[in-house]
Amino acid sequence: MRDTLVLNASFEPLSTVTLNRAVVLVLQDKAVVEQSHPALRVRAAAVDLPVPRVIRLCRYVRVPFRRQAPWSRPGVLVRDQHRCAYCGRRATTVDHVVPKSHGGADSWLNTVASCAEDNHRKADRTPEQAGMPLLHEPFVPSPADAMLLGLRSGERAALPDWLAAAQPAA
Ligand SMILES: [Zn+2]
């Protein structure tokens, strides 16, 4: 199922919904289409509409508090764009900067994407102990970043520039 990104009236990413839900929100005048798929259309009894990729709510929704993006291994790989933090090649594993055996946590700031080779080489050591400096420091994605990170890469690549700019830099 193709997901549609939902923006608040203030243009801040809020969530993703199914295509069906997105179409309903637009037809009920609760949201406007900000970006649609150039080639695909939704066709039903009385509906003929381009497939929305991004919709924006017409009324501002107050978000009660800013949740922190929950940590996950797939999330770390996407945050680091599947690039190894030690050598820059393609990463398929997640490395704990401070190893778990040394009390290192499952957290955004203590984990980086790593190729299997470097993960194995670094083993149970810190980057200093292993002589393997990080190419970049890990960071905590904002909830809005995490929303974009959760989109499939093809969907992310298709986002308008002003939204894609909200993504963390490589
Ligand atoms: Zn590597």
UniProtKB/TrEMBL annotation:
Keywords: Endonuclease, Hydrolase, Nuclease
UniProt-recorded name of the protein: Endonuclease
Organism annotation: Streptomyces pristinaespiralis (strain ATCC 25486 / DSM 40338 / CBS 914.69 / JCM 4507 / KCC S-0507 / NBRC 13074 / NRRL 2958 / 5647)
Record-level Gene Ontology MF annotations: endonuclease activity; nucleic acid binding; zinc ion binding
Residues covered by the HNH nuclease domain: 71-120
CDD domains found in the cross-reference section: HNHc (cd00085)
Transmembrane portions of the chain: none
Hydrolase among keywords: yes
Keyword Nuclease: yes
InterPro entries: HNH (IPR002711), HNH_nuc (IPR003615), NA-targeting_endonuclease (IPR052892)
